[in-house]
């Protein structure tokens, strides 16, 4: 297996993101329509937080509805702001961080996604799914 492959080779560059002014209803809609579990929160293109689908589940009964259902019950979401629910202490990696180093960070912290940043400028996102796909390619 290659030792020094940068994470930029497997990261998602077409990023679904939220602005701090967006509400949680929009967040759930994005999670469902894009079939994703993590969304970076930005101010412009500068990362300021991360929201996971699990963060939403903690404050709602969103898991009680069908994931294919595009209708979102906004009652609970209107009680919270995105800033109150998102993770503010974001750990990120740079595009030249190796895939191995990225996997070590994910494993050590029990994260499932990391924003990829140049400084605080968001340039991508890498998930455990990206890592698994990369590992599977190594066996072909």
TrEMBL record:
This protein's UniProt keywords:
CBS domain
Q: Give the species.
A: Flavobacterium suncheonense GH29-5 = DSM 17707
User: What is the protein's given name?
Assistant: CBS domain protein
PROSITE patterns from the entry? CBS
| RNA-binding keyword on record | no
The residues covered by the CBS domain are 11-70, 86-140
């Amino acid at each position: 297996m290659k030792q020094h492959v940068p994470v930029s080779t497997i990261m998602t560059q077409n990023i679904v993101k939220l602005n701090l002014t967006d509400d949680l209803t929009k967040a759930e809609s994005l999670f469902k329509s894009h079939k994703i579990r993590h969304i970076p929160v930005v101010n412009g293109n500068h990362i300021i937080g991360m929201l996971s689908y699990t963060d939403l589940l903690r404050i709602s009964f969103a898991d009680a509805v069908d994931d294919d259902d595009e209708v979102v019950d906004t009652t609970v979401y209107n009680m919270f702001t995105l800033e109150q629910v998102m993770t503010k202490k974001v750990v990120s990696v740079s595009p030249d961080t190796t895939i191995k180093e990225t996997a070590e960070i994910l494993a050590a912290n029990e994260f499932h996604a990391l924003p990829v940043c140049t400084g605080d400028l968001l340039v991508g996102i890498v998930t455990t799914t990206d890592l698994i796909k990369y590992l599977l390619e190594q066996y072909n």
